[in-house]
Specification:
single chain, about 350 residues, alpha/beta, seven-stranded mixed β-sheet, elongated
Length: about 350
């Protein structure tokens, strides 16, 4: 099943006839494979690891699939006849995607931007930099808009630092330097949930620790500030979050294992602790499925005498799920917005 933006692209497949195409920020479907009915070669870069997992089984000599915030180094200078961008859920990311697209286009190359009507794509004219022509609306279908533009002049080199905000953050465990790339949630202050978590950390943390949904790496950096001996693994589904986390660790002279994982699917073995302010959104939609799966697989991944501690919005139905998989519910602390759950085996 194709998403609505992908269906809109299929309607306009003549744009890519016999072209070498780059697709950025694609969604959880197989449009990139179907695009080969028109295009001669497709390279697809996912910013969401789940989306990469959906498409990668279809990889071939004419379909290259990658995950990350940019193409691998061997393709850094590769040029494409046309570039397709799926308008991102996090609107600030669009500027980065446009800049990245321009790095892989020759003058006169075609840019196609597609997105759902309610997803912010109508603002594309204001977001498009001067090195592209003014976007023209080509189609309005499947509750989506599709725009085309052309590269009219060479874009400046893409420097990740231009898309990075760096700031000092005071935490209950000390001061940290946080690095945050566009598209990654950050309030430039410690949110109430994470503050509640870091204020009540157990003093017996040791060994292998999992930071599930690491984001920009605030929790991992705070844990390492408190105990540099911890072997922390930071996982996230978002490429920009993983890059931000790596930059945060480097800025604080810390080391941890940072890698993508779709839920617990890419994790092996057991952990002495799982510490998290877990995500509960799938795109723009709040979902209880993420919470349920997280608790279930946490219970399976926690080592004997392990510590499981998470903070979550009060309205999320964690209690029943925790009771089902851990046997009991222990609310260690709470405030008017969050609850802190603790389980020790």
């Amino acid at each position: 099943m194709l998403t609505n933006p992908s269906q809109a692209l299929i309607r306009n497949s003549e744009l890519f006839q016999q072209q070498k195409v780059l697709i950025l920020n694609y969604e959880a479907d197989t449009f990139a494979s179907q695009c080969l009915e028109s295009a001669s070669h497709v390279t697809a870069l996912a910013f969401d690891f789940n989306h990469h997992q959906t498409l990668s089984p279809y990889a071939s000599n004419t379909l290259e699939c990658y995950f990350g915030h940019q193409l691998p180094n061997n393709l850094a200078n590769e040029k494409y006849d046309s570039v397709i961008i799926y308008f991102p859920k996090a609107k600030p990311l669009m500027g980065y995607l446009l800049h990245l697209a321009a790095q892989h286009m020759a003058i006169g190359g075609l840019l196609v931007v597609v997105g759902e009507n309610k997803g912010g794509v109508k603002s594309i004219a204001k977001l498009t930099p001067a090195y592209f022509s003014a976007p023209i609306k080509q189609d309005n279908a499947r509750h989506c808009l599709l725009y085309t533009s052309y590269l009219t002049q060479a874009a400046p080199a893409l420097l990740l630092s231009d898309w990075l905000s760096q700031y000092t953050l005071d935490t209950p465990l000390g001061q940290l330097q946080i690095c945050n790339l566009v598209g990654v949630f950050s309030e430039k202050r410690l949110d109430q949930g994470t503050e509640l978590l870091l204020s009540h950390l157990p003093d017996n943390l040791n060994g292998r620790v999992l930071d599930f949904g690491c984001g920009a790496g605030v929790i991992s950096a705070a844990l390492l500030k408190s105990n540099p001996q911890l072997n922390i693994e930071c996982i996230d589904i978002n490429a920009m979050a993983l890059a931000s986390c790596q930059l945060t660790l480097a800025a604080n002279n810390m080391q941890a294992k940072v890698y993508p994982s779709d839920g617990f699917n890419q994790i092996t073995g057991q952990f002495n602790a799982i510490i998290s302010n877990p995500p509960f959104h799938d795109g723009l939609t709040s979902t209880t499925d993420i919470a349920t799966q997280f608790v279930k697989y946490s219970a399976l991944s926690l080592a004997p005498k392990g510590v499981w501690q998470i903070v979550a919005n009060r309205h999320l139905p964690y209690s029943d799920t925790i009771a089902a998989h851990f046997g009991k519910v222990n609310v260690q602390a709470e405030n008017n917005r969050y609850k802190l759950y603790l389980h020790q085996t």
